[in-house]
Each structure stands twice: as structure tokens, then as C-alpha cells.
Specification:
A hairpin with a 4-residue loop joins strand 2 and strand 3 (about 35-40). The protein is elongated, with a radius of gyration of 18 Å. The longest helix is centred in the middle third of the chain and has 13 residues, at about 85-95. The chain has 3 helices and 10 strands. The strands form 2 sheets. Strands 4, 5, 6, 7, 8, 9 and 10 form a 7-stranded mixed sheet that branches. It has a 3-stranded antiparallel sheet with strand order 1-2-3, with no helix packed on it. It is α+β, with helices and mostly antiparallel strands.
Length: about 180
């Protein structure tokens, strides 16, 4: 069977600590040619900490869109991209919220934007929570963590207050699986 799209050539057009952008010359099955811009980013984890019909969200300023937004704790380790996603999830939960979990259950694996990026993420449900001190990075100094009822989070999504696609997808996935 012929591949749908074949890469003819590739070149890196931009690279920094967090991402690499490449441009691929491609050939479609019918022989026509084209180009793809592909963003390569380290995979990340999204953690949904749940306790007594409530969850924890973090709010921070997101520079590319110039605004503060609520989202589930999430993150990647660009310096260690092969880290076990479960280890990453536990560390990010502690870092951003100060919470640890007795139980972390992987509930899904999704792509961030597979039309332009290789990045994917694992969604974890965290239960059996205990509060400690958050261990935020310098870049997270403006972060706020707050507890919300699950119904309130749902209304924040419906009302457009939560705009983070990974948060909306994780919440929907957990609702559809009847885990929250």
C-alpha cells in the first residue's frame, strides 16, 4: 500500500529549549507536492486532582495569548523528555499545587494539535490528596492554585472562562468515563 504522504526533504527552521520547528517537503499519494510546517515539542502530563466532588485548578498568565487563565496542573520536562509520564505527573502536581496523591490513574493519551505538532499528553486522575508546599519554578511565580467544585468547573468551561484545550479535553474524558 502506498503511503498517504511521503517526506521528500526536511529542514529545521527554528529551535530553542522548548521547541523545534521544521519544514517538510512532502509528496501526496497522487504525486502532487506540498509543504508541512511541524512543531516538535516534548510530551506533557495533565493532572486532574479530585477530592470530595471538587478539583484544583491553577491560574497563570499565558504570554502568547496575553491573559490569565484557569487550567488543570500540567507540564513537561524538556530537559528529560523520556521521563515516565506517571513520574512527570506526580512531580508537576506537587510543583504547581503542593498536592501529592495516593493514587494516580492514567485515563487517556491525546494529541495537543496533530495538524501541526507532534506533541501529545497523558491525562491522569489523582485521588487521595495530601497538601504540602508547592515547588514552583521561577517562571510560575504568578501562579495561583484554587479548589473548585466539579459542577463549577463544568460551568466555567461552558461559559468560556476555561479556554485551555487540554483542560477541557481532560474534563470531558473523565466525565465520559464517569470518573468524575
Amino acid at each position: 500500500m502506498t503511503a498517504d504522504i511521503t517526506t521528500v526533504a526536511t529542514r529545521i527552521v527554528y529551535e530553542n529549549r522548548w521547541m523545534r520547528v521544521r519544514e517538510d517537503e512532502i509528496r501526496h499519494r497522487d504525486g502532487s507536492c506540498g509543504v508541512y510546517g511541524v512543531v516538535e515539542k516534548t510530551n506533557f502530563a495533565v493532572i486532574v486532582p479530585v477530592e470530595d466532588s471538587s478539583t484544583y485548578l491553577v491560574e497563570q498568565y499565558r504570554y502568547p495569548v496575553k491573559g490569565r487563565y484557569w487550567e488543570f496542573p500540567q507540564g513537561a520536562w524538556e530537559q528529560a523528555p523520556d521521563t515516565d509520564p506517571l513520574v512527570l505527573a506526580g512531580a508537576e502536581l506537587l510543583e504547581e499545587t503542593g498536592l501529592t496523591a495516593d493514587e494516580m490513574v492514567q485515563v487517556g493519551h491525546l494529541f495537543e494539535g496533530y495538524g501541526y505538532s507532534t506533541q501529545s499528553y497523558d491525562v491522569y486522575l489523582a485521588r487521595g490528596l495530601a497538601q504540602h508546599n508547592a515547588r514552583r519554578e521561577r517562571t510560575e511565580q504568578d501562579m495561583i492554585c484554587r479548589r473548585f467544585g466539579l459542577d463549577e468547573v463544568e460551568q466555567m468551561i461552558v461559559g468560556g472562562m476555561i479556554k485551555d484545550a487540554a483542560t477541557v479535553a481532560a474534563f470531558g474524558l473523565l466525565r465520559l468515563q464517569k470518573l468524575i
